[in-house]
């Protein structure tokens, strides 16, 4: 808007200057019409009512005429003589010049030349008609003052239009951002193409990248499974050889082979689990309440489970980013362990804490000694060495203990708010 105001002011100034020059040209022609020859053959000017300002000293409107060596001027110049350029314009032509007037006024002037008479008796006449530029400056200032409010309103409208255009133009990108968030939360597995035409190529490229990723993960998972199956037969053969060695009395060698085979089995199982977890990342979606209810029903049918009071507080409708089988494996081990040591009751609760679902398992058993709490979450760590235990390990739970109670709490990420829609 600043540049627009400057440009409009310059245009107005040029227009006002052209109007002022045209007015000065008309005044010059009117003054030329007053020139006439006297009875003795001399040249004189007859009076004419042209502009009252020409009779007011230093009024800002002036004229000056040189006829040969004779100088005539308006009363408004008083005793001041305008000093034009030395070279006058040709006869019949005019020029627009800037002059210094009385009282340091800056004048816009029209300098006109003409000849009176014919032949060698013709006399040169130089006429200057001038006006103070302050009138032009005041007109320009008034124009800018009138223009500024409209420019301010126009600028505000431009800003509003730009804001609306940016908002409307970038709205498809915000839709893409929201859809990408659903990919990360597991609500969707592809962006789709229900976008404006300009954004569809971007969404299509992202979906193609996701397809390529899934294909690579599937190939990696299949290779891992093939590798595991390829190892199983040789490992079983080694176990058979270990049994033969033990039958021959070579117990130490058999024990060493079995230990090596066990380590290799654990490595293979771990890599298979890792491949499965990575392949399901972002797509797994499980309702923990359903898993908790399923585990509780199975354990309640056991002789020990029928003797205690079950308290399940797990509202449905929450979804966690975890495979259902993995969650059964984790919560099943924890709930079975709590059942073994519970005296009269076992309580399982499910609640949401911001972006995490927390499952808490409480029993009224003897609890865990304070000195052993820090070591308990380690993978495969077991405080009870009786057969049948599994250790906690994964996921590392938050554990606390107090007399006659043990509390197990583990968190899972939530892919979306409490909603059943994907």
Automatic annotation (TrEMBL):
Its EC number is 2.7.13.3. The chain crosses the membrane at residues 147-166. Keywords: Kinase, Membrane, Phosphoprotein, Transferase, Transmembrane, Transmembrane helix. Residues 368-402 are annotated as: Disordered. CDD domains: HisKA. It comes from the Bacteria. GO terms for molecular function: kinase activity. SMART domains: HATPase_c (SM00387). This is histidine kinase. It catalyses: ATP + protein L-histidine = ADP + protein N-phospho-L-histidine. It is an enzyme of class 2 (transferase). Residues 226-393 form the Histidine kinase domain. SUPFAM superfamilies: ATPase domain of HSP90 chaperone/DNA topoisomerase II/histidine kinase (SSF55874), Homodimeric domain of signal transducing histidine kinase (SSF47384). InterPro entries: HATPase_C_sf, HATPase_dom, His_kinase_dom, HisK_dim/P_dom, HisK_dim/P_sf, TCS_sensor_his_kinase. It comes from Paracoccus cavernae.
